[in-house]
Write a structure and sequence with these properties.
single chain, 586 residues, alpha/beta, Rossmann fold, pyruvate-formate lyase- activating enzyme, OB fold (Dihydrolipoamide Acetyltransferase, E2P), 3 domains
Length: 586
């Protein structure tokens, strides 16, 4: 039974029962009894409320009814914090776990709550509302959040006297996946909101203040929060994440993302460009475009986009579990437009899928000076047999052909990757193939994990998690060791080079050193000092976060580069500065 028919049946049943009650009849079938005059008065009041309440049309987006629910123009001011407190006194505290998308989600959720009258605190003891933005990709991530929730619940009990209205909420992937356990079994939280329900946070919190446990974890086929301008919380304001799409259609057998974040839908190009322009005006020097499958971006927000003749162009030798998608503005169109907004703003993107790197995207990266020459290329495994079980859509050979093509089009490109050890059925030979791929490609950054089976996934239903935990761990340690060896070689090759570094702030290990990242997204550490703005002028200026500086590399290991800063610079002036410095050296 669909939603429409269920709703009509409920209304029919209720109205029939209501009609009989108004007539004073009994109707055991509907669990009603003969009513008194007082009951009839209450029923009349209830009937009046029903007449003023929402109809079925209110639950349909884009309804032609005069009284329609438009998510994009929804007014949150109607949700008020109870009178016992005021909006100004309510402070919300966020803790964010997991990927960069959760950082972006935190900024979206905060924007919505700020509009509803909440203020934000970065100190837990000051909080009236504690919201955890969660991750479900791996079991370890979930366990971390379970432990944190138990700690917060104990804190809530201890602080009943001076914080009687403290509310705890879980947002994001874990809220969607474990609603029943969080809300009903463990009873650790007051509010649950899935990745597509952040618009409803003010209402959910209002219900929680009324004494209810409130949740909304429904996934959407349309929600992109295109009209919500995130409140960016960037360190010193020099970099920011911009979400461009949500969800994933790839259905890799190990991955929970399609089940916690839903199907792919892309944010309109116009709203992305508006946000990037705003960030540029604020002085942001680096923007990272975000999505679960960021390079499968496809804007279908306007009719003429849908009717365009463009179709998905996959990397050679790659395939998908879904049919070729037609129409829309593609990732190459977006990258082209974004890179033109501010020539002195670095553009990155994550996390991509290797299948979505046609030559036009690679050529654009090579042509545009402000698009970083760094590509994240998740392999997950190097055994074609394991890749088939993972439903990745490519073989080892196709992946290596793509690496060769990328390096041919973008000389000097930096590559990073993801790998999983101990996937279902992985043999020692499969593991050795993965080690050999790492040696052959030479990545400078990697994200390596032992396999953790997730419920709802294809692997959970169809495959056997048959690699023992100690074997997974041993293979992971071997992979980490090989990865570090190769990353050290890649980074050592940069000795003596001059790298353009975007300064992030002080080094964690010493207040006398600064750190930042080069074009390849490798950390660079150097002594704090004043630098000239131009080689031929003696004026010295301190280095501050958000500055571009040229750094001469003098040492390297698997995790970072070290050197000494030479001069202030920019994306546009780099070559000029390097040329003048070389003349001075001569």
């Amino acid at each position: 039974m669909n939603i429409s028919s269920s709703f009509r049946l409920c209304r029919f049943t209720f109205r029939k029962c209501l009609s009989r009650r108004l007539q004073g009849d009994t109707c055991d079938r509907y669990y009603c009894s003969k009513s008194s005059s007082t009951d009839q008065t209450r029923v009349v009041q209830l009937k009046n409320k029903l007449a003023c309440g929402p109809s079925f049309q209110d639950f349909i987006k884009s309804s032609t009814s005069d009284k329609s629910y438009d998510a994009c123009n929804y007014e949150y001011e109607e949700y008020h914090i109870p009178e016992c407190t005021t909006a100004r006194s309510q402070k919300v505290y966020f803790e964010t776990y997991g990927c960069q998308m959760n950082v972006s989600d935190t900024e979206i959720a905060w924007s919505i709550l700020q509009k509803a009258g909440y203020s934000r605190t970065h100190e837990l003891p000051e909080a009236d509302v504690v919201l955890l933005v969660t991750c479900s990709v791996r079991e370890k991530a979930e366990q971390t959040i379970w432990n944190r929730l138990k700690h917060l619940t104990a804190l809530k009990k201890r602080s009943q006297k001076h914080k009687p209205l403290l509310k705890i909420g879980v947002l994001g992937c874990m809220a969607e996946r474990l609603k029943t356990k969080l809300l009903e079994q463990e009873k650790l939280v007051d509010v649950l909101a899935g990745p597509d329900a952040y618009r409803h946070l003010p209402r959910l919190l209002s219900l929680a203040y009324g004494g209810q446990r409130a949740s909304n974890v429904l996934l959407s086929l349309e929600e992109t929060y295109a009209d919500v301008m995130p409140v960016h919380q960037t360190p010193e304001g020099h970099s920011a994440f911009v979400s461009i799409m949500r969800g994933c259609d790839n259905m890799c057998s190990y991955c929970i993302v399609p089940f916690t974040r839903g199907r792919e839908r892309s944010r309109p190009l116009s709203s992305i460009l508006e946000e990037v322009r705003m960030l540029s005006d604020q002085g942001v020097k680096e923007v990272t475009l975000l999505g679960q499958n960021v390079n499968s971006y496809r804007d279908l927000s306007e009719q003429h986009f849908i009717c365009s003749e463009g179709s998905t162009q996959l990397s050679r030798g790659f395939k998908t579990v879904y049919r070729t998608k037609q129409g829309g503005l593609l990732f190459s169109d977006l990258l082209d437009k974004v890179s033109q907004i501010d020539p002195d703003m670095r553009i990155r993107f994550t996390s991509p899928h290797p299948k979505d790197f046609p030559d036009e995207v690679l050529q654009l990266i090579q042509e545009r000076r402000n698009i970083c020459k760094q590509i994240h290329l998740p392999a997950q495994s190097s055994s074609s047999r394991v890749l088939h079980a993972m439903r990745r859509g490519y073989t080892r050979e196709a992946y290596l052909d793509l690496v060769e093509n990328i390096r041919e089009i973008i000389p000097g490109v930096s590559l990073s990757s993801d790998f999983i050890t101990g996937f279902c059925g992985e043999t020692e030979e499969d593991h050795q193939q993965t080690l050999s791929l790492v040696r052959e490609v030479g990545y400078n950054v990697g994200f390596l994990f032992a396999y953790s089976m997730r419920k709802k996934t294809h692997a959970y239903h169809r495959l056997q998690d048959d690699v023992l935990a100690p074997v997974k761990q041993r293979r992971l340690e071997e992979l980490i060791s090989v990865f570090r060896e190769e990353a050290t070689k890649v980074n050592m090759a940069l000795l003596g080079s001059t790298q353009l570094v975007l300064v992030e702030g002080e080094s964690k290990r010493s207040s006398e050193e600064l750190c930042g990242r080069n074009d390849g997204n490798v950390k660079v550490v150097f002594p704090k000092t004043d630098l000239p703005v131009q080689p031929e002028k003696p004026q010295m200026v301190p280095i501050t976060p958000g500055d571009y500086v040229l750094v001469k590399i003098t040492s390297a290991n698997s995790q970072c580069l070290r050197g000494h800063a030479l001069i202030h610079s920019s994306l546009n002036d780099r070559r000029t500065s390097e040329h003048l410095l070389s003349k001075q050296t001569i």
